[in-house]
Amino acid sequence: MDGIESEQVVAADAQASGGGGAGSRTPLLELRKMSKQFGPVQALSEIDLKVYPGEVTAVVGDNGAGKSVTLKTISGIHPPDGGEILWQGKPVHIRTPKDASALGIETVYQDLALCGNLDVVQNMFLGRERTRNHLLDENSMESAAAATLSSLSVTTLRSVRQSVASLSGGQRQAVAVAKAVMWNSKLVIMDEPTAALGVAQTAMVLELTRRLASRGLGVIFVSHNFNDVFEVADQIAVLYLGRLVASLPAKGLDRQVVVDYVTSGASSRNGSQLAHADGA
Amino acid sequence: MDVAPQTSRLEIPGAGPAIPGSSGAELAHLDFEDERVAALQEQRLAQRRRFIERLQGEGLLLVFGLVFAVMWASSRYFLTVANLLTAASVVSILGIMAVLETLIVIVGEIDISIGSVMAATSVMIGLLVTSGVDVWLAAVIGLAFAGAVGAVNGIITVYFKINSLVTTLGTYSIFLGIAYVVSNTMTVNIGGEGFGKLGSGTILSVPVPVFFFVAIWATVFFVARFTVLGRHIYATGDSYEAALRAGIQADRLRVGLFVAIGLSAGVAGILVTSELGSAAPQIGDPYLLSVVTAVILGGASLRGGRGTMFGTLVAVAILGVLQNGFALLQFSSFLENTVIGCLLIFAVLTDRLVRRAER
Q1: Labelling A16: which of A81, B137, B345, B350 has CA 20 to 30 A away?
Q2: Residues of chain B with pLDDT > 90: what percent?
Q3: pTM
């Protein structure tokens, strides 16, 4: 136990020194000692995580490490039992998904939560339809949806009136992301966004993810796939058995170090890695 | 063409780029191949979907035309205004329930208790009238009862998470049994000059039930097509999870629809009771099969998320012409069951085809 905690301190130091001055800015979202228990199971213990605007923060970890619980806690599905959530430096309570979206947190779920029988516009506005004299205002919704899609450079859609059932996996992901971005969101959580995609579509989604960050949004990118993580992430946070064991800047990071953390919760390569990061 | 197999080979693992740091040029190349294959596939699917849509749209109209033409050729009474109005009046009862059943099927449920709710409503009105209650008040109480049965169906299905087929099969049996026991299988005569007009009166020589049907159909068509409520019904039917995450109150929505179809069965029960001038427990018998057939024939999918009011309208018209034709030609009403059963199977098979085209 002691070993893990000391690792955490080292990791935090690494972030302060090697994170490109990240310490001086206010994080968009900060988790302080956040914990979550399901009956006798301690799913998360005292997670400390900072997510900055304009950055992609990847959350990696093995199955059961607590990745989904972490994101569900942030998105209001499983409110935490202990610890604090700070939003733009102020403590907040996120008890329901509505609380989360009121703050500007939108989640793109792994199964996307889209309706195949509805078209792109109808999906993007589902649950928040615009009306005019109590009737659906199709024109206004269509132009807003088209504007959001083109601002994200999503150009592969034949028509915004295409039914979602007819879209490819990558296109659906793009629609789900556009849906999340449309509501003036500040933080977008992406849960395994490339899990079901082919090579080209994965590249498209990763590009889209970078584009969100370059627009100044904070992005939490949950993934199993190290290739994807190293391609998009600015920060990599590693969860191991419900604890945050490392939070490292991705630039110049040795992949093997992350593998060590994911599989054992610690890395003997840590010293040399830090030296490497400082040198870069 | 020799590049294509390579693309698919790379895609099989589905674990993202196999080579770390694959260059942008490579990805762009793959992108092109990927998109082209996807485009071809999409084109093929779109073609099949269009065919199916025509089968369900124009195909259904064609069936209607065919049935109409056969009846026209078979009986010289068929194409008379009086006969067509009678046919419309008869089929309106079925139509009223089919409209709401379409919504129930779109939202991903089914209600097969409608026939017995009709019967129970009718028997209740009969009992109330014989014990001295005003017939109009009795009708209102009957309607409220039908709505309450719908609420029970909805609450059991939604909050206890019971398959609606099972729930409504149960309530079907319960209320049919009660209707027979309470009425002692007797038919109760119901007087009241004005009340009789509901079922057998005419306005501008059009039977009153037709007005009920048209009004209900038009209202539901409008709601399904142009309102937030309609959009949410389609969304919930396709993906309950997605609907919940979008903040739609999917449970309340489903219970509400069960109440609505209960009320529609109540209206149907009142109209038939009025038309016959009597309350009887067997009046609902023919409707279970024909209502569900109309809905599925009209293109609504039992999987939920799919169905149109227009389709249901045409399907109701087809059944109306068939029923009328069978009566005119003096065929056995048992044969009518056989034909409707065939139509139901045919409709379900078409639904299957549609779903295959979507994958």
Answers
A1: A81
A2: 47
A3: 0.80
